[in-house]
Amino acid sequence: MIKRILISFSVMLVALFFAQMASAKKSGLAFIRDAEIEHTLRSYASPLFIVAGLNPEDVSIHLINNRVINAFVAGGQRMFFFTGLLERVETPGQLKGVIAHETGHIAGSHQSRTQEALKNATTKSILGYILGAAAVFAGGGKAGAAVVSGSQAVAQRSFLKYSRQQESAADQASMRYLNETNNSGRGMLKFLEILGQTEQLSYGKVDPYWRSHPISQDRIAALRNQVDKSAYRDVLDTPEEIHALKQIQAKLYGFTRSLAKTLKKYPHSDQSAEGRYARAIAYFKHPDIEKAEIEIENLLTEFPDNPFYYELKGQMLFENGDPHAAVTPLEIAASYLPYEPLILTLYGTVLLNTGYPEDDAKAIEVLRTSTRYDPGRSGTWNQLAIAYSRRGDTGNLALATSERFLILRQGKKAIFHAKRAQQNLRTGSPGYLRADDIISLASRLLKKN
């Protein structure tokens, strides 16, 4: 569940979190994580990745909380989406078209030499550079001035931009991927037509998608020709796909806009699922927990199998000081999505806050599962360390702490706690050997610095 956006929140609430760097704060850009949005994007993207010859597990998806309409790939198989694009698309087909197109850039090795140099870097280590590049595009150069200047700004303009030849190749590849997954290309065509109707937005700035993805009438015409020839041109989005897109758009709106704006877009007369969802989130954020609970309970009555509604209910209860009541809805959410690390981390965190010793053991089980599916989240390791501390498990406490510091790139602390872990773990055990790995990785990190 998305955490409160642009307001204070507890670091323990991790169903969605913001990883903000100094540059992000200056440029107004922030990276977010959300189980439902990522789940929806992957449901659209995985079939496209497979036919493109990519392993879906090797392609990481990142969300940038900004109303810019753009998407790009960077640093290898890393795909980035601005929330503005997710809100702007009108159909799942349009979003699939964007994903297919970006997949074409990855499969076609269209990334610049600057990006290739970052291919083996960690995502965290390239966030600042990406944010600077994104700011240059988002603000026509002005926003990026807070992050970069001079020759670096020029380099960052080329960081996201593709040639017309690369755009054409990505279009052809995307049509092939859409055809091979029995999807229509009309969505992609329609989205380009929407953006291509005018090169200028109402406030006089060039649309960022134009900056990084050159659009021409020739390109649109060529794509239209391919779409018209496709045997799948008339295939429609499924009701489930349409529902999922409307849900994430309502979620983004509810979390990023004021209550007044949300109620204007989704008035009480709107009894659609997305309308009730947006209002539940907006009331929760306001906060008006009673009205939020009415909306979410209404949704759960009609859609008792939606794990993300249970996730929202659990977060609402937890943030409002009732971890005991939050356990059951989060347990249900985790039962539907047992491999979703963001939900598992929130569930484990709530278990640690009930005050019941027996819940600490369950929290360890849940949090360990979360780290298996997403080992790169320092917050999860921190919660796991807390759980081990309560159980008096000094060895695993130190090991979890060393994992956390390794992710934070604090090599000396990672080594200190890894050695402490080895002092308390059986020699040759999996934990002992993992501590060896951490010492080695942290030592290399220190040499680089």
Plain-language structure description:
- By secondary structure, the chain is mainly α.
- The protein has a domain at 18-236: 2-Layer Sandwich (Zincin-like), CATH 3.30.2010.10.
- Helix content is 65%, strand content 4%.
- The protein is built from 23 helices and 5 strands.
- It has helices at 22-27, 35-51, 83-88, 92-107, 113-117, 123-138, 150-160, 164-180, 186-196, 208-212, 217-229, 239-256, 259-265, 273-285, 289-302, 307-319, 323-336, 341-352, 357-373, 378-391, 394-407, 411-424, 430-448, and strands spanning 18-19, 31-32, 60-64, 71-73, 78-82.
- The protein has a 5-stranded mixed sheet with strand order 1-2-3-5-4.
- Helix 4 (92-107) packs across helix 8 (164-180), helix 15 packs antiparallel against helix 16 (307-319) and helix 22 (411-424) packs antiparallel against helix 23.
- The longest helix has 19 residues, at 430-448.
- The protein is globular and about 65 Å long.
- The model is unreliable at 3-27, 136-156 and 198-206 (pLDDT under 50).
